[in-house]
Each structure stands twice: as structure tokens, then as C-alpha cells.
């Protein structure tokens, strides 16, 4: 079967923007080396869970998308394996890996299925775990529609197996060291299912309605060519015109409105650049633009071994021939996890590691982190330029 149009992974888009389904229908699916690497990490994790083995056993193996299992993937996937196994052991639950779940009853799309990385069945709780191999932004499990649809599909599939009272949803991002858990009652999850069903019907009834949102547009295939997004972005430049260098209550609302559109505009511009590049590289003309040879890369040895032998024959001093630097704390941490640095030695290494506090940054009020109390006055910012703010 072809990929579901109303897939859980794109729910944040089609639940907010019903017209996006028709707009994206005939556009080709694209991938990236990062997505393919994530697919291979998922394949490795599933293999280990199904065979009750550790990730280290497969180091060096080339997975389905062509990525070799390196030390970084071993450590990240093992972190995920340890978490899943700990949950199974603590709950005495039944582990189900790469569980294919029907979602037709939820979205109404005939024959549609989704695949959950891990489903764990306990006496009164159903647990769904999603592995995210990326190391960009931490993804929260709270009110995550993709995870909720997987959880509802799992509940529909296994509701007769146990007397489930709650459903725990987990997003595990080992390369960020992040684990986000969120729990709903079964009644709350079923109520969410009704919201999904209504949104799914809207994609048919209101198939021409486009509603741009920052989250929904982020991974939309039609982002670069969507007429509603284009209008929304261009309208910003006509209606939102805060005056520079005049801090005050009178323009704070305009600044807040503009800031709320910043991610949407930046995402649109990035999509425009990617679409123009794709067309030009495929030989499709874009008026006013062309493909040229880029800046040459950094110089490198064609064969390091030959270069090393030649420099040695020239009697270049050893300290001038080689560059040395101590490994980073991150690399040392990996050595500790691989037990190259022993458990008794690691505390001594940790004592030498420092880490600066994060710099203050702007976030929406919905962010879970507490707000910092800032005491700076407006005069402190008098010399800031537009460049400083970018």
C-alpha cells in the first residue's frame, strides 16, 4: 500500500491545515542523509530488541539505507535499548517491537496503517515509545498528535488484552540525552480520537482551506509553493512594521506579532531556496538564477599514508609533522560508556570537566523553562544594530 495521506507523522500538519493534503498529494516524497541515518538507527534498535542483543554486537554492519553502525550509533541506540528494557523489567510488561497498527478507524483513510517503534502492554497501562535519532530540537511528548495517534491505534488493537486505565507516551532522543514522557487516561485519549476524526473529515469537506502554522508548515512538501503561506508571509511586511530603537508599550504588541511569525517566515525562505536549487539542478529554469561552480573545498591529502611516508623521508621533525589535541569531554564520555575508561576512573575525569551556563535566549511563554528576571534598562540596548539582532 502507498504511504498514508493522513499519516500520524504528518498529523501536526493536516490536523491544522486540511487543504495541505490535496496540495501535497502529487508531490514526490524526499529524504535526506539524516533521515536515512535515522531509519538505519531504528532498524538497528528493532533488531537488538527482537534478538535480545546489544548494539555493540552489530558495530561495522551496514544497515538498509547504507549507513554503517559506528560508535556513535552504538552508544545512542544502546541508551534507547537500556531505557526500553528498564521499563519492561519494572512493569513486567509484554514488549512489542515495530508494531504495525491499523489507523483506518481513527482517520477514516481506507487501509491506512502506522508503525510504532515500541508498544509495551502491562496490567493496567499501555506504553508507547518513539525513538527520535535526530539531534536538532528536543521533541516533547505532551500533546504530540503523532504519538497520540499511535497510542490510540495501539489501544484499539489491544484493548481486549488488558484493563488499561492510562496510556503513557514516550519520546526518547538519545543523542540529546532527552526523554519526554506524558500520560493520558484512556478516556482522554479516546476523546482526542474524536478530534482527529473531525480533522480527517475536514481534509475532504474543506480540501481547499489552507491554514499556515509554524509547526504544520515546517515539513510540508508544498511549503515553497503554498499560496496561503506566501500570502501570509508577504502580508507580514505590509501590516507589521515595529519602529526600531523605540522600546515602549506602544510597539510591544507589533514586536510580539512579528516575533510570532519569525519561524514561519524563516522556514518559508529556506523552502524557497531548496525548491529553486532542486529545479535548477534538475535542469528546470528559474528566471534570474543559474547554477555556478561553488567555492573550492579545503585542501586534503589524496593519500595520507603516502604523504606521511614522504614527510618522514624528508626528516620533518615529529612535533612539526603531527597535530595533537586531547579528546573532548564528549569523546571521553563515549569512552566511559564503552568501558575504555573504567567506572572507578570516570569520576576523576568528570571532576576536570566544566560546562558554562546557557546564554539567555528568547522563547514563547508556553516554553516550560522558568522565565529569567532581567534588570537591564532600555539604555543598555541603545547601540544595538539590526546586525546584532540577527
Written description of the protein model:
The protein is of the alpha+beta class and 390 residues long. Among the domains are: 8-205, Lambda Exonuclease, Chain A, CATH 3.90.320; 223-281, no CATH class. Helices cover 44% and strands 11% of the residues. It contains 15 helices and five strands. Helix 6 (145-158) crosses helix 7 (186-205).
What key phrases describe this protein's structure?
390 residues; alpha+beta; Lambda Exonuclease, Chain A; five-stranded mixed β-sheet; 15 helices; globular; disordered C terminus
Task: Give the arrangement of secondary structure elements.
Blueprint: H1 11-14, H2 20-24, H3 33-51, H4 71-91, E1 94-102, H5 104-107, E2 113-121, E3 125-131, H6 145-158, E4 166-173, E5 178-185, H7 186-205, H8 214-218, H9 227-239, H10 249-281, H11 304-313, H12 318-321, H13 329-337, H14 346-350, H15 386-389
Parallel strand pairs: 3-4
Antiparallel strand pairs: 1-2, 2-3, 4-5
Question: How is this structure best summarized?
Answer:
The chain has helices spanning 11-14, 20-24, 33-51, 71-91, 104-107, 145-158, 186-205, 214-218, 227-239, 249-281, 304-313, 318-321, 329-337, 346-350, 386-389, and strands spanning 94-102, 113-121, 125-131, 166-173, 178-185. The chain has 390 residues and is α+β, with helices and mostly antiparallel strands. A five-stranded mixed sheet has the order 1-2-3-4-5.
The DSSP helix count reads 15
Tally of DSSP β-strands: 5
Give the N-to-C terminal Cα separation: 46 Å
Q: State the low-pLDDT regions, or none.
A: 377-390
In CATH's first tier, which class of the domain at 8-205 applies?
A: Alpha Beta
Overall morphology: globular
Amino acid at each position: 500500500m502507498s504511504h498514508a495521506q493522513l499519516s500520524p507523522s504528518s498529523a501536526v500538519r493536516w490536523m491544522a491545515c486540511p487543504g495541505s493534503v490535496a496540495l501535497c498529494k502529487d508531490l514526490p516524497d524526499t529524504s535526506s542523509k539524516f533521515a536515512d541515518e535515522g531509519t538505519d538507527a531504528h532498524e538497528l534498535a528493532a533488531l537488538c530488541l527482537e534478538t535480545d542483543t546489544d548494539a555493540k554486537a552489530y558495530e561495522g554492519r551496514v544497515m538498509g539505507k547504507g549507513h554503517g553502525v559506528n560508535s556513535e550509533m552504538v552508544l545512542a541506540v544502546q541508551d534507547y535499548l537500556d531505557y526500553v528494557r528498564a521499563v519492561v523489567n519494572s512493569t513486567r510488561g509484554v514488549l512489542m517491537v515495530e508494531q504495525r497498527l491499523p489507523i483506518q478507524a481513527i482517520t477514516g483513510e481506507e487501509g491506512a496503517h502506522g508503525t510504532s517503534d515500541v508498544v509495551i502492554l502491562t496490567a493496567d497501562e499501555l506504553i508507547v515509545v518513539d525513538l527520535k535519532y535526530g539531534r536538532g530540537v528536543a521533541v516533547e511528548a505532551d500533546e504530540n498528535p503523532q504519538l497520540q495517534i499511535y497510542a490510540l491505534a495501539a489501544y484499539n488493537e489491544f484493548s481486549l488484552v488488558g484493563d488499561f486505565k492510562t496510556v503513557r507516551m514516550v519520546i526518547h532522543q538519545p543523542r540529546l540525552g532527552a526523554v519526554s514522557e506524558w500520560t493520558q487516561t484512556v478516556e482522554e485519549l479516546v476523546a482526542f480520537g474524536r478530534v482527529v476524526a473531525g480533522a480527517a473529515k475536514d481534509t475532504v469537506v474543506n480540501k481547499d482551506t489552507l491554514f499556515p502554522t509554524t509547526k504544520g508548515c515546517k515539513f510540508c512538501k508544498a511549503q515553497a509553493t503554498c499560496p496561503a503561506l506566501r500570502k501570509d508571509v508577504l502580508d507580514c511586511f505590509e501590516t507589521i512594521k515595529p519602529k526600531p530603537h523605540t522600546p515602549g508599550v506602544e510597539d510591544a504588541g507589533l514586536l510580539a506579532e512579528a516575533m510570532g511569525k519569525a519561524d514561519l517566515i524563516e522556514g518559508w525562505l529556506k523552502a524557497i531556496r531548496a525548491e529553486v536549487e532542486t529545479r535548477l539542478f534538475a535542469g528546470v529554469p528559474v528566471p534570474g538564477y543559474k547554477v555556478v561552480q561553488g567555492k573550492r573545498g579545503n585542501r586534503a591529502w589524496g593519500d595520507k599514508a603516502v604523504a606521511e611516508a614522504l614527510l618522514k623521508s624528508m626528516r620533518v621533525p615529529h612535533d612539526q609533522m603531527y597535530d595533537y589535541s586531547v579528546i573532548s569531554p564528549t569523546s571521553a564520555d563515549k569512552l566511559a560508556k564503552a568501558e575504555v575508561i573504567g567506572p572507578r576512573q570516570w569520576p576523576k575525569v568528570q571532576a576536570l570537566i566544566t560546562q558554562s551556563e546557557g546564554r539567555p535566549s528568547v522563547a514563547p511563554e508556553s516554553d516550560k523553562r522558568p522565565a529569567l528576571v532581567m534588570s537591564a534598562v532600555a539604555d543598555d540596548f541603545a547601540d544595538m544594530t539590526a546586525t546584532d539582532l540577527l
